[in-house]
Write a structure and sequence with these properties.
about 400 residues, Archaeosine Trna-guanine Transglycosylase, Chain: A, domain 4, Rossmann fold, 10 helices, 20 strands
Length: about 400
């Protein structure tokens, strides 16, 4: 195993358990570690700080542990058991009406570079680092052990998340078991999960609690769900008694998936008749829409994937919300979100403030939203807090 030595006084962030080693902090290595290798990280004078996965880029090492311990299957079983125990404590496992949750949330579960989402008895595993890609089979075995067989199939989906420079030519597929059942339950509602070609692991698991909140506001309202993707907010709104629900996404495939999810829950009922879906550009649809809606959901894709795009992203959020503020009925409710990690809560809130001021309407904040507890934020890694949202009332 290679050792990476840090420059003098560059170990302080690791002593505070921040899980990233930046390339600028490295003095030298005692060899030539390859991307994905487990490396020992030490101070300039050789004191061990822990072990992590080596990678190419500004983040040079993702720390797995800050102790002297072997990184093997037993290590991963221990980490995964911790993660499973937390989800049990949150009441997300062993429910007959619910089987969708995040089991591993990267740094939040002390496995930086790894995401695992659970859909019933199938886990979808996604590597964001070469290190976890290389040990994917060990991880899959550890996952079955850690959950005592409650996870029966493990699907590996990292084709679009691994560093492109690694040139791994990864293909998605099952590592353990197999399942042709692509439906799963979330709070008693059925959803089609496209883990084969869908975004992320096939479903936006992080909006579960916010979808439930919207359900309580939906009764009797005319709902517009922008950037609907799988139609999660639309399905909850229909169950909540919305008068009508319109779902909009630029992707025809997303619209087809939304219609399928509505049919899964409300086929051949009057409820399904209250839903319409449109494959159109969201900005254009919103600009051309009338002022009939009194509940609007704005859940766009990340406008800023890195800090260089921050200014453009703030303008995008401001423009989008300004249109919604102009269109929404008096007394209407707006659910608005940003999933851009580069945009802080304060910056997002300022964008909504600016949009409200541009509209000239009085706006009150009812809820300040965030990612759910199965997407925990490591207190030493505040960068892990990415989802932010507001629920506001417009006079």
């Amino acid at each position: 195993m290679y050792t990476i030595y840090l420059k003098r006084h560059k170990e302080e962030s690791l002593r505070r358990f921040h899980p990233w080693v930046f390339s600028g902090a490295i003095d030298h290595a005692d060899g030539h570690p390859e991307e994905g290798d487990v490396v020992r990280v030490a101070t300039h004078d050789g004191h061990c700080l822990g072990y992590g996965h080596c990678q190419i880029g500004s983040i040079a090492v993702r720390m797995l542990t800050f102790r002297e311990e072997a990184i093997d299957e037993a290590f991963f079983v221990s980490r995964l058991r911790e993660a499973w125990a937390l989800r049990q404590a949150l009441g997300l496992t062993n429910r007959t009406d619910h089987g969708i949750f995040r089991l591993v949330h990267g740094e939040g579960d002390r496995l930086p570079g790894l995401v695992i989402d659970v859909y019933g008895r199938t886990a979808v595993m996604q590597a964001h680092s070469v290190g976890f890609h290389l040990c994917r089979h060990t991880l899959a075995q550890a996952l079955v052990r850690a959950t005592e067989g409650q996870i029966e199939a493990v699907y590996y989906k990292s084709e679009t998340t691994l560093p492109y420079k690694a040139d791994l030519q990864q293909e998605n597929g099952f590592i353990i078991g197999h399942s042709d059942d692509h439906t799963a339950l979330e709070n008693g509602l059925r959803f089609q999960i496209d883990w084969l070609k869908g975004q992320k692991t096939g479903f936006f698991v992080d909006q579960r609690d916010n979808r439930s909140l919207l359900e309580h506001y939906a009764k009797g309202r005319r709902v517009l769900n922008m950037f609907c993707y799988t139609g999660g907010f639309s399905v909850y709104a229909l169950r909540g008694g919305a008068r009508l629900v319109h779902s909009v996404d630029s992707s025809a495939k997303a619209i087809e998936l939304t219609r399928r999810n509505v049919d899964l829950n409300f086929a051949d009922t009057d409820t399904a008749q209250r839903h319409e879906a449109y494959a159109e550009d969201a900005f254009r649809f919103l600009e051309q829409a009338g002022s009939d809606y009194d509940l609007i959901v704005l859940d766009p894709p990340a406008f800023a994937k890195h800090k260089d795009a921050l200014r453009h992203a703030i303008k995008g959020y401001t423009r989008l919300n300004a249109i919604a503020f102009r269109k929404i009925q008096p007394g209407g409710i707006l659910f608005t979100f940003s999933c851009s990690q580069a945009v802080s809560k304060e910056q997002f809130r300022l964008a909504i403030f600016t949009a409200a001021a541009m509209s000239g309407r009085h706006v009150r904040i009812l809820h300040q939203l965030h990612q759910p507890a199965d997407h925990p934020v490591n207190i030493y890694h505040p960068e892990g807090e990415y989802l932010k949202g507001l629920v506001v009332e417009v006079e």
